[in-house]
Each structure stands twice: as structure tokens, then as C-alpha cells.
Amino acid sequence: MTRVLVNDPALVEDLLDFLSHAPDCLAERVSEDEIEVSIVSSLRVDRLREQLDGYLRAWERQRPGARAHVSD
């Protein structure tokens, strides 16, 4: 699991909803402004990180001012 920090706790549920539409993504809230995400795939770890980064950037583009980044 990878931890992701969101700049606005009010947007955490929105990010969880966004990621729930990705067929290979499992995510859950772990604190006020943080979620844990797992990409279910046979890809190498570095490719999984790129895929997650792509999901996060797509979410940010649709929500001006929203920011999310991997915390580990």
C-alpha cells in the first residue's frame, strides 16, 4: 500500500471516489488528509508508481487547487 497526502481534507472523499472508478485501484482513508492506495497489477513497482501518479495528476487537473502526493 502507498500513502497519499491530500492538501485539503475536504477533498479526500472526492479522491477516493475518483480512484474507485479505476479498475485496478483499491483505496481507503487512513487519516483526515491521507489515504492508502494499492494498484492491483502485474506491473513492476516503478510502473505502478507511475500509474498512480497519473491517476493523481488527472484528478488534480479536474479540481483546480487540489493537490495530492505520495508521502513515502
Overview of this structure, please?
The chain starts with a strand and ends with a strand. The chain contains 2 helices and 4 strands, in the order βαββαβ. The mean pLDDT is 92. With 72 residues, the chain is of the alpha+beta class.
What would you say about this model in short?
The protein has 2 helices and 4 strands. It is of the alpha+beta class and 72 residues long.
Radius of gyration: 11 Å
The proportion of residues forming helix, as a percent range, comes to 25-40%
Order of helices and strands: EHEEHE
> What is the overall silhouette?
globular
User: Which structural class do you get from the secondary structure elements?
Assistant: alpha+beta
Number of helices: 2
Give the number of DSSP strands.
4
Mean pLDDT level = 92
Give the topology, please.
Blueprint: E1 2-6, H1 12-20, E2 25-31, E3 34-39, H2 45-62, E4 68-70
Antiparallel strand pairs: 1-3, 1-4, 2-3
What key phrases describe this protein's structure?
72 residues; alpha+beta; four-stranded antiparallel sheet; 4 strands
